[in-house]
Write a structure and sequence with these properties.
CS_dom; 7 strands; cytoplasm; HSP20-like_chaperone; alpha+beta; Immunoglobulin-like; Nuclear movement protein nudC; four-stranded antiparallel β-sheet; unfolded protein binding
Length: 188
Amino acid sequence: MADNEKTPAEEAAARAKEQAEQDALPYKWTQTIGDLDITIEVPGNLKGRDLVIDLKKDTISAGIKGQDPILKGTLPHTIRVDDSTWTLTTAPNNTKQIEIHLDKVNKMEWWPHVVTDAPRIDVSKIVPENSKLSELDGETRGMVEKMMFDQRQKEQGLPTSDEQKKMDILKKFQEQHPEMDFSNAKIN
């Protein structure tokens, strides 16, 4: 077992600690590889004009007028402000929610947290839902699947797809040139 690998018990404890830290935040958030959604519960008597929501390419501030922001800080990566939105919705239990949608600039990156001073999640444990993966366009989906395959291969100490390709090319070359001695060849 590598030094950085955890036992199942340590892994479970790390997950539980991470979940507790996320549950303690005054907002909930979810993400796909391309965007991030934040939900903040607010009193049911509020209207849109009672809120102060400020989305900039690398900062966010959201809250109720006249109070400290519920969510404020520096984003870990940049967003497309023009494609990011917020709405105030009424939940079934008559409370209201601020729903903020952030459009990531980099569509190939998981965020460890919404703002840089919030507790981090372990992004290496994220497994995209297959339905979400199928919604990606062909090229993006191929890149995500390759990243996931390479991640699994690395975890098992096996060659990544690129390393495997190089080994296959070398093997084919060796078969075509049996007269050459490759016993001391180094591949890099």
